[in-house]
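Board notes (copied after class):
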Amino acid sequence: MRNVFKISLVVLSVLALASCGSKSGSSDSKLTGWTFNNPKFGNYFKGGELAGQEIPLGMVAVEGGSFTMGAVQDDVMFDWNTTPKQIHVRSFYMDETEVTNAEYFLYVQHIKDVFPPSEENYKHIYSSVLPDTLVWRKSLGNTDILSENYLRHPAYADYPVVGVSWLQANKYCKWRTDAVNLKRLIDKGHIKNIFANDSLRNFFDTDVFLADSGSLFDGDSTVYKKGVRMRGVASKGRDSFQGRKITKQDGILQENYRLPTEAEWEFAAKANVENREYNNIRGRKKYAWDGKYSREKGRKLKGDQLANFKQGQGNYSGISGWSSDGADIPIKVKSYPPNGFGLYEMSGNVSEWVADVYRPVIDNDANDFNYYRGNIFTKKMIGEDGKVVIANSSNRGQAAYDTLPNGRIVPKELPGSIKYTPITKADSRLRRNFTRSNNTDIGDGDLNSSRFFEEDELGTKPSMYNSPKDPKTFTDPETGETYFVNDAKKRTTLISNKTRVYKGGAWSDREYWLDPAQRRFLPEYMATNHIGFRCVTDNVGPISSKKKARHTVR
């Protein structure tokens, strides 16, 4: 009995010491015996195993796995654009709803605060993030009320934002990464609440924070309160910076937000977890919900539509007194039941941008693991002084701009952010997994697949396919208005490396487009009144934090 007591005491002591070590972030190397996070042993650091793995705000966990990407049912068009292929997708987190007007307008307000359009250096930055509210106008329709109110009126605050191009959606994802990380650092006491300081420019960039934090906040180092605590290091003065600088390895910062790939979006929308039986998929899914029909079967709401879509010519919501889908334009998010992953309105309401460059077919030779077309591999630009190059760091952040094909002026990068450059041949030399920086048209032939791609068979070129060369090329001497002059570049197709995929049916679409497998495309700089977006972020660590699920039988 005494021996049992001694053994129990030893086991409890070991468990207590192990738990203390894991909480403090200190542990010993299992292969060398050196101690991590200890200045007496070189202060070689190791983050906590579970750090940074909580579910991000507003998102749900989507456990990855295999699924059939493409049309698996009712392919009435016999469209090879959606040929079925088995793909594996890694686990990720996804917004449970589309980004709303209120959330996007928060971004708009912050950009205006950080880069005031009244300052010459920043005059085009604010306008570059504004949604195009004129997408609601119709030549033969009375829709100006939506152009004037849909974005800013509180009645539409929780409606999905539209009029946002693919380029703008990507910029929002980058800003959201920085906004979330800034809030985390403030909440954990690493940074002072900069929003309470009116004299401080509250621009924050995660990459700059990790690479050269002294470049942020106009060089005011007093903003930083503390870093990561180190064992055996005496505390400095009360107003001095404590600990060491935060690194990526500490797991404090949020993984980058981004647009979902086409494979991720379709996998999340189909939610085959609903019709799984053991390790097999039972039946085929036509919609984001489980079932073959678009109407509610329950007694309370029987007959109501399960998504917001156009039901026929001139029929957007049903007849007066019996609105079968509840909306004639986009509707408030979470107005319909979620799918098996807990995601709302993956079919209907608004279509959504995904990250991929559009091609009419996904090759049989395409990567079957986390498929994505659009990779452009870059690296941080390093200056002669060995430090990262900060964009437009001279002249208090004079921004550099590009002119898009539709004439919109956008910044090449936000002043104060890190400049990136494409990888070089030396970086890819002797590699087998990639050979170049821009992989958007790799393996598809593109222009080389067309024998006569440089010939103009019709002898004429519609100007709508040509881009404005310079927004200041011609100015009317009487009115002072500036007119765009289109270039004469030869173009043979609307499909290019600047054409992006969007998925899902919208409020203005017929039922055919509710199938998550259907895919369409639009140039990345264009916006419509039926395309919105939602963000994803990568899951780090195991594919699932849950134990192996048992089979589901219905």
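Comment from the instructor: The first strand starts at residue 59 and ends at 62. Residues 14-25, 448-453, 455-462, 549-554 have pLDDT under 50 and may be disordered.
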